[in-house]
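In the design runs reported in the main text, the only information available to the sequence generator was the tokenized backbone. The following block is the verbatim input for one such run; it is reproduced so that readers can re-run the procedure and compare outputs position by position.
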């Protein structure tokens, strides 16, 4: 019982004390009142890959939003699509305000982002993904804070209601944390589907970086603030469908990749390091603590029938959470439990792969000349 109580206390501290701490430090980061001129120019970079079914609606929406700016351009980068997107964009044609760039093969998001920035004509950049729906007037709102000299990037906010009007408690809590980080001036990671950045603050992203949005945010935080605008709503697909095992493994690989980039951590302030570790890394321990609680409950079965009942309930909920979404078995906490199960399995998978790769690298290194620089391909 003491162990279960300790685990529960840890999770409470992780989820409740963090926003309280953010509230305490928020007052120390006011925006510099010095403003630049009102923003009337913008380059929107739309990243597309096999998204033909989204392109017509998204381009039509963005062209409408861009009409509110005196100087504007839409840069569409197709990353080696094979679903008919290229043919659609070719028919769509180029105009004075629309540039279409085709990658011969899938180069990845960082490559496309760097390419888009290199051809952009204006200082204010907006990155946009293909799948999500956006709220009306979002473009004006997302670039508005860039007129402050202290602001380097601005993030839109993924709605806790998806396209089917289903609510996600996890997304609502994540938005709550990000809003508190924004008030403290240090949003740890913009929402990738839609955000704005000053061109002068953009750091070219290495092509092997997995979490490009988090990487860029951390680089900007070295000298500028990163803000969240909650009114800029991004409406995505169902949370439970999006966050599958593959995405959990990708995120974990990205977090571990950034953890090895010591220069990123050294550039952050002490408060920002605390925020990054508390928000992004400590939560990775939760799946282990949940499993530990489950094991302890199983051991305690021999101490009383009440533990058998609790163990049976936990087992049932765990099984329900990993069943395919299409079975539509209702459980309010299903998404939260499901993602924790995925993260636990994915973390073991990623660590094992890292260990195996390290052993292979060491073995290969031993038969080469000392000091040879070996890189994974």
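Verbatim output:
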């Amino acid at each position: 019982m003491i162990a279960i109580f300790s685990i529960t206390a840890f999770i409470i501290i992780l989820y409740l004390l963090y926003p309280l701490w953010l509230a305490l430090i928020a007052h120390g980061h006011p925006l510099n009142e010095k403003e630049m001129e009102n923003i009337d120019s913008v380059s929107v970079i739309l990243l597309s890959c096999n998204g033909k079914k989204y392109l017509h609606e998204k381009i039509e929406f963005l062209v409408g939003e861009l009409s509110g700016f005196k100087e504007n351009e839409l840069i569409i980068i197709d990353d080696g699509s094979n679903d008919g997107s290229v043919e659609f964009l070719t028919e769509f044609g180029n105009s004075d305000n629309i540039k279409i760039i085709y990658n011969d093969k899938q180069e990845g998001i960082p490559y496309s982002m760097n390419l888009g920035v290199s051809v952009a004509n204006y200082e204010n950049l907006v990155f946009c993904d293909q799948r999500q729906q956006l709220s009306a007037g979002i473009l004006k709102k997302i670039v508005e804070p860039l007129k402050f000299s202290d602001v380097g990037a601005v993030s839109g906010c993924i709605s806790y209601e998806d396209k089917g009007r289903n609510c996600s408690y996890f997304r609502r809590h994540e938005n709550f944390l990000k809003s508190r980080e924004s008030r403290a001036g240090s949003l740890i990671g913009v929402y990738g589907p839609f955000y704005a950045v000053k061109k002068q603050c953009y750091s070219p992203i290495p092509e092997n970086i997995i979490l490009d949005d988090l990487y860029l945010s951390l680089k900007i935080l070295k000298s500028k603030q990163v803000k969240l605008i909650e009114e800029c709503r991004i409406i995505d697909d169902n949370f439970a469908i999006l966050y599958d095992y593959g995405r959990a493994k990708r995120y974990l690989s990205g977090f571990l990749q950034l953890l090895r980039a010591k220069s990123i951590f050294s550039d952050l302030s002490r408060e920002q390091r605390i925020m990054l570790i508390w928000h992004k890394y400590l939560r990775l321990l939760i799946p282990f603590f949940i499993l530990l609680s489950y094991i302890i409950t199983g051991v305690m079965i021999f101490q009383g029938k009440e533990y058998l009942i609790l163990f049976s309930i936990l087992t049932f909920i765990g099984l329900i959470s990993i069943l395919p979404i299409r079975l539509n078995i209702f459980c309010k906490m299903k998404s939260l439990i499901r993602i924790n199960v995925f993260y636990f399995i994915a973390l073991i998978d990623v660590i094992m792969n890292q260990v195996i790769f390290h052993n292979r690298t060491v073995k290969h290194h031993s038969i080469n000349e000392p000091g040879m620089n070996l890189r994974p391909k």
